[in-house]
Amino acid sequence: MVLISSDGQSGLTEATTRCATHPKVETELACSRCGKPICPRCLVQTPVGARCRECARVGRLPTYELPPLYLLRGAAAALAAGGALGVAWFLLLPYGLGFFGLVGLLVAFVIGYCVGEAVSWATNRKRGPALQVTAAGGVITSYIVRNVLEGVAAVPTNDFWGYVLVAVGVIVAVQRLR
Q: 41 and 76 share a domain?
C-alpha cells in the first residue's frame, strides 16, 4: 500500500485494516478461519489460533443454560423445601424464643443449604442468577410458613432476629447455586 504524507512524500507502509465490529479501531489481526479483521477486544483465543466470535462459537456453559422447564422444577423444589423447612423451623425454634443464639444461626444455615441443594438437585445441578432468586424465595417461604404456624403476621414488623436468620439463609442458598 502506498501512502502520501502531508509533505507530499510517498512511502511504503504495512497494510492495516479496520476491525469488522469496531470500525474506529485499526488492526493487523484476522480470524484464522474466515479471515475477517478483528481487534484485540473481538479476539477469542482457541486451540487453533485467534478467531472472531462467530467462528469461535462462544456459548454459555451447559451448567448455566436454564430452559423454562428447569426453572419451573427449581421453583417447585424451592417452595416444597421452603414449606417443609418452615414447619421444621417452627418446631425447633418457636417465635417466642427469638434468636436463641447459635441454634438460630444453625437453623438458618441448614435451611439455606437445604433449599439451595433442593433447587440444585431438581434442576440437574444447574446454576445461575434465576435459580439463586428462586432459592432465596424458598428461604423466605420457610420464614413465612413458620410465622403463619405461630399465628403471627406473615412478615412481622418487630422480628429483627428473624430477619437476620432469613438473610443468613438466603446468603447460604445463593452461595450454593453460584
A: no
What is the count of structural domains for the chain?
2
Tell me, what's the pLDDT at 65? 85
- C-beta neighbour count of 125 within 10 angstroms: 9
Tell me which residue has cell 424464643: 97
Same domain, 121 and 104: yes
3-state DSSP of 114-133: HHHHHHHHHCCCCCCHHHHH
- Kindly report, residue by residue over 8-60, the tens digit of the pLDDT: 554 444 557 899 989 999 999 999 899 999 999 988 888 888 898 888 877 67
Q: Please tell me the pTM assigned to this model.
A: 0.69
Q: What's the domain range around 170?
A: 62-176
Q: What is the DSSP letter of 30?
A: B
